[in-house]
């Protein structure tokens, strides 16, 4: 099984680097990628029987080619797409066809997400925000040595291909003025030449001035080394997407000075992670400020590096692209052989649909979803992040959800204890002797019951947005928020046979559960709801059976018997199980740790992943939860 990626840009350009980085991510995730030049025999390459899907980094150039081939594809929306091509009516028409046919669309920043949804509202739910990942590998190259300048020289580096949109002429004129004031100030332009005539113009403007120098394209590792030596890295573009060069500069600890355009300011906060200018006078003032204030320069270096390493990690980017293509390939017709596709296993006497991520030899994490929720409640990106940290991640459809066994609506022939036995049955079917179990909401209750019934099978517990349940002789816990109960009661029942009606219903039911102080990502919920409908195969109404479950005898009085290391995770603004439930749960289980997610509701939002994933990795770092050597996984 292969994917195909198109190469459009010259070697060592930002576009080429981005395409190759995405291809590397996908290959590392088990989806080998064939890189094909745009001018090559793309159609013949795509017709290779092993190629299942395609990825391109231009909605116009890749899209126009992909439209002729017929395989599913994902488009990454770049700066040229939205800043230039989309403004041309003929190009816009082709791009519209391409994005409508695409299985998914990726944008690098919030501004591009907003603009692409405004341009093509009919595909707004397809657009995903995936920040660019950064990895710098400086060589032993020395730009100062190559230029023959000393340590006192103030090198302003402009890493940019020679194109009008990069506006190198602006930088040349501005730095010449600075050089007249301080001969130590020099500009170095490093990048690919796209046009011989424009290159000649740039060289004429440079002339024989010692203030400016065009050195052509540098190898990526040499460019990183040059950034590390530079006094500052510049961006003078008149329009951008999210220039990876700025992220690379911040990662190696070099201050950045950038023009005030959305593509730059989505990455750089003025005075915190870099300096922003609007015009020539602003450029002059900001560069002088940087040169004259060593304390400011050190602060920008530190904050810029911290920002990039916190929000633009390679692992997060890899997991996001792996998730996009995991979803795409899973949604292919059943007769297409996809190794990562979910499958039905026999567990606890019933048919349950399961899917795994990562190496079966790694510690296993079993994810247990909430009431009426299928495995899609656990985003593939979340699963990929955990798998990338060395975990064998298992998600599955409960009875009456997804592709698992279903029963007539309102007549569930099972109880909560049966769902707990199902969880253990999934481990049996996959040959996992012990697992770290993570349950959310009803899934957290299932995890508690399973830990009490089968303690030898549970390596650890993580209980998210859940409750210890009630006890006849224990203190009562606060009920769900009246505001949320009213909102949920106001959600109209859907026509369960109509996709649009079901999507509207599921999104409306999810909205009140989010934290009231957080933005509700309606587009992401719509995208998942559509997949939930498609996977259910006409049985989605049966998911309501979980509301009729008999929970059996209260288990809260027995929680003190749980010996598995336990982490309780709860939203501070959970309207279904107010935070008192988390405190009661943590108090009842010996040694349990409690982590409160600020502003979170009854949810596991993507904004919480950077906090929760490391916590889960630490919590599951013991030697337990490995594959049973006595049983072979399916």
UniProtKB/TrEMBL annotation:
Database matches in InterPro entries: AB_hydrolase_1 (IPR000073), AB_hydrolase_fold (IPR029058), Glyco_trans_1 (IPR001296), Glycosyltransferase_G1 (IPR052622)
Lipid metabolism is among the record's keywords: no
Annotated ranges, domain Glycosyl transferase family: 144-306
Alphabetized Gene3D superfamilies for the sequence: alpha/beta hydrolase, Glycogen Phosphorylase B
Start and end residues of each AB hydrolase-1 domain: 363-473
Molecular functions (GO terms): glycosyltransferase activity; hydrolase activity
Organism of provenance: Amycolatopsis eburnea
Pfam families in the record: Abhydrolase_1 (PF00561), Glycos_transf_1 (PF00534)
Name this polypeptide is given: Alpha/beta fold hydrolase
